[in-house]
Structure formats: structure tokens, C-alpha cells
Amino acid sequence: MAGLAAANHLIKNGVDDFKILEARKRIGGRIVAIPLKNHVVELGANWIHGVLGNPIFEIAMANGLVNIINTPKPHKVIAATEDGKQVPFAILHEIYEAYVCFLRRCEEYFLCQYLPPPDVHSVGEHINLEVAIYLERLPSSEEKKLRRLIFECLLKRETCISGCHSMDEIDLLELGSYAELQGGNIMLPSGYSSILEPMTKKIAPDKILTGYSVIKINWNNGNQHRNSDDGEESDDSDETVIEDITKSSSSYKSINPCEGISSNEPHKQKKKHSNCVEITCENGEIFYANHVICTMPLGILKEEASKLFEPALPNYKMESIDRLLFGTVDKIYLEYERPFLNPDITEIMLLWDSPPNKDDLENTWFRKIYSFSKVTETLLLGWISGKEAEYMETLSNEQVSITCTKILRQFLHDPFVPEPQKCVCTSWRKQKYTRGSYTAIAVGASQSDIEALAQPLYKSVHDKKPVLLFAGEHTHSNFYSTVHGAYLSGRTAAQHILASDQPQEVVLDCPDTTDLSSWIQGIHLEG
Ligand SMILES: Cc1cc2nc3c(=O)[nH]c(=O)nc-3n(C[C@H](O)[C@H](O)[C@H](O)COP(=O)(O)OP(=O)(O)OC[C@H]3O[C@@H](n4cnc5c(N)ncnc54)[C@H](O)[C@@H]3O)c2cc1C
């Protein structure tokens, strides 16, 4: 999304000398859908988080992708224990309210700068402290246990929202740095992936090169080649660098974000393009560009950054990459031939007696699945996070399907729960071009690590424009982990490149959406 957003922003501002290098054979990254037998399911993003001020919502509205007269079905959740007993709704409601209150209190540390209790550093620790106090006042151990299981279930759910293994990993002081947009969560009737059509319609097909995996970004090319080609001593004086840049500007267009000239004969091109960023792809092709926007996910940066960039990224960036978390969150889709669940129920929360055992994931991984929710009457969706999700990624869909059927039979106390006709599990951690699901702020990290990642890099302090820029959800300090965060970061990066060339008014919105934010407030919308 970040790459497409950058491309659209450049096009809107009259710049089209760029290329998008995409490693996969498809575009969309973490926005992707696949067909099952009777459904098309989204493997990545599913919800537009918030309406007001959400550019993705605006694009969806402007392109007729939102069904505003759709009346949402009421959400009826049941919670069941391992012996198949259902928890009274009043208890579920009571604990949910308390939990939301505990979570809001965690968020306040960021917003109000309170000091946390001593030795409490994570959201998990803080919530568990509040849970302990809450349960203490209850007289019977049965009452305590049931409520504790609901809290544990909600914490597992929170790991899927935050993108981590355990809420003990999430920094308490930073939870509130994520900004929620008003308006609830919106689902597009034709699926989140339908947003890719309006995002690509203005980009000429030859601008997007799929199957181009970038393996090297040499962003200080001019200095190195000058030194090595001329056999000179290293000369980092600003004057020489500025001279190189001037030459570059006269032989290329000044805005050229993802590509200059590609070549299979790098030795011939090197001299000519010595001031450009040199981008090498796995297929042997080399590109030269005045500017590069790197939108590779944080998971890739964690694994590859030390080899990918030449010269190495500054230490402050490498340390931020290290500190931030890129957890694993996976989905499990179960598609059935016929409906079998009570039509009034939309979600079954699973209150496991004990948590998964990290030393015995083979026999306990599934205890991390906190619920199955209905997507349609014949499609269920389960979520799983962290080490257990990574373990699940080693199993076949058939193995997961068998386990899920056992779980449903047990918790619904119904041996006739059918086997699904199809089971599909995502494998975001295993994906070579993602290596996880989304960004979270780990204990010890902070919003400033995200800001450090977003910082563009210049060849010299005298340069007006950066050569290497970063975008992607992991670079948005308030909307990290979301599609709209990725979108806005891509637009910001493109804007950096445009900035000093275009002091005149810059076109920010797509033409069809100009006044949308203001009139949308008058429409009643529910997720
Ligand atoms: C299971 C799941 C559910 C989610 N649900 C939601 C949701 O409901 N709402 C929401 O807002 N967000 C959701 N998200 C998050 C959202 O999908 C991402 O935040 C967003 O799509 C990220 O966009 P991006 O451009 O930063 O990265 P990506 O979409 O990952 O794009 C990065 C691109 O870089 C490419 N790439 C990687 N390495 C290379 C390389 N070496 N060379 C060339 N190309 C490379 C990748 O193939 C990819 O296309 C979800 C994510 C997951 C995994």
C-alpha cells in the first residue's frame, strides 16, 4: 500500500518517471484475497479502521466500494469452557467492561504521562495487576476462575490486535501512541482487496515490475564509485559531493523515485550513473534512481537491513529496527458445506483451562486460538498469534482443520459438528517478503523509534532532497500496523521528494474525494 500511495501522489503532482519494484508476482503485499469453494477470503487486512480522516475510507467511498445502506447484523457472542458449558452473558459483559477499562487505563500512560507502578513495564503486567485486584474481592474460587479465564481470552485477543506473542511484550507507556480514528471498523462488501483497483488505476502497468526482489540498495553510490573508479583516497568533503549531485541533476530528471535506467550490464552503466542510488535485484537487473522509497516491511528490515544497504544504515535506524516488534498474527478460515451454528450466534469465545505450553507447542499450540467468529453462515474465522501461530505455520491445512473440528466439538459439546470442506491458514511469518504481520511497540521501544525509521537519508547535509526514504505501516507514528498508516507514510515520502521542486500548491487528495471528510459526518455509518 505504501508504494502504491507514493506512486499515486507523484502522479497527482505530475511526476511519472518512476518504477515500483515488487518482489512478489502480485501487488498488494499484506492486502490479498484468495478464493475458497464458495467464498473469497482476505488473508491480510480486512477492516478499514475508522472513518473520519481515514484516507482509505475516502478512497473506498469515492469509488463506490462502501455500502452505506448496509444494516450490520447484531453481534451475539457466547463464551464456552473446555467442558462445553456456556458462560452467562451477564458475566461475559461484566468482565468485558472491566477489561476495556483496564486497557484504557494503560493507554492513559502515554496520553497523560503518568508514572506507572514500580517494576511494571508492559501492558500485560499492568492488566494482570488490575485483574488480580479485581478477582481478589470475589468470595468463591469458582467465580474467580471463570472470570480469570475470560480475562485471559481477552488478552489473547489483544495480542492479535497488537501484533505480538504476549501483551507482556508491549510497552505500557506507548500503548496510547496508536491513534484510533472515529467511526468504527468498516468492511468492504467486495473485500479489502477491492481497494487495490482504485489504487492502481492511474499507474501505468509498465511502472509496476513484479518479480523484482531487491537485494541491494547502494545509496551512496557516487562517493564509492568516484573513489574506486578514480583510485583516489576517500574524499568525503561536501564540495565534491555537491558537485556529483549537480551533475546528476543535469543528466536526469530531478524526481525519479524508484528507477533511473535499468541495465543488465552494470559495469557499463556504473560510471554514467555514479551519482544515483543503485538498486540490484535478485534477477540480476540493476536500476539507477535519484531517490528510492523503501517500503519493505519491518520483518524484512529486521532480517535483511544489515546486508541490504550500502553503506550500512546509520546506527540509530538499526537500533530502532531492532527495538520495534514485528509479531506474527495468523488467520484460520474454515469453510463448511452447510450452516451448523445457531444463526443467532456470531462468535464463540474459547475459555481454555490452561494456556499453551511453550515447551510443548505440538500438543498445546491451539490453546492460543481465542475464538471462532462467523464471517458467513458457512465460513468461520479463527485468529492466532505469536509462537503458537508460528508453530501452526509448520502444519498442513488438513492438520489444522482436524484440530479445529475437535475444538469446536469440545466447546460446543456437540460431536456432530461437521468437518470443514476447506481450511486455509495464513503463514505471515513464513512469507519471504513479509516475515511477520504488523508492527508493535515492544517494551523498551517507543514512538520515536518509528519516527527514526521514517527519517529520510541524505547523501550530504547540503543536499536539498533525500536519496533514501522509508515508508510502510512501520513508519507511521500513530497509525502503525494499519493500511491507512501505510498509505499516509507513502504519501509523505513522495511529498519529501516533491517538496523543493514544487513550492506551489501540492495536490493531496484524489479529485473525487475533496470534500468527503466534511460531508461524511452527516451520514450514519456503522461497522
Ligand atoms: C493478518 C493481517 C490482518 C490485518 N488486518 C488489518 C486490518 O483489518 N486493517 C488494517 O488497516 N490493517 C490490517 N493489517 C495490516 C495491513 O495489512 C498492513 O499494515 C499494510 O497492508 C502494510 O502495507 P505496507 O505497504 O506497509 O506493507 P506491505 O503491504 O507488506 O508491502 C510491502 C511490499 O514490499 C514487497 N517486498 C518485500 N521485500 C521486497 C524486496 N526485497 N524487494 C521488492 N519488494 C519487496 C512485498 O512483497 C510487499 O508487496 C493486517 C495485516 C495482517 C497480516
From TrEMBL:
Residue ranges constituting the Amine oxidase domain according to the UniProt record: 1-234, 261-498
Molecular function GO labels: polyamine oxidase activity
Cofactor(s) named in the record: FAD
A GO-annotated cellular component: cytoplasm
InterPro entries: Amino_oxidase, FAD/NAD-bd_sf, Flavin_monoamine_oxidase
Keywords: Cytoplasm, FAD, Flavoprotein, Oxidoreductase
Cellular location(s): Cytoplasm
Pfam families: Amino_oxidase
Family statement drawn from the similarity comment of this UniProt entry: Belongs to the flavin monoamine oxidase family.
Entry protein name: Spermine oxidase
Species of provenance: Eumeta variegata (Bagworm moth)
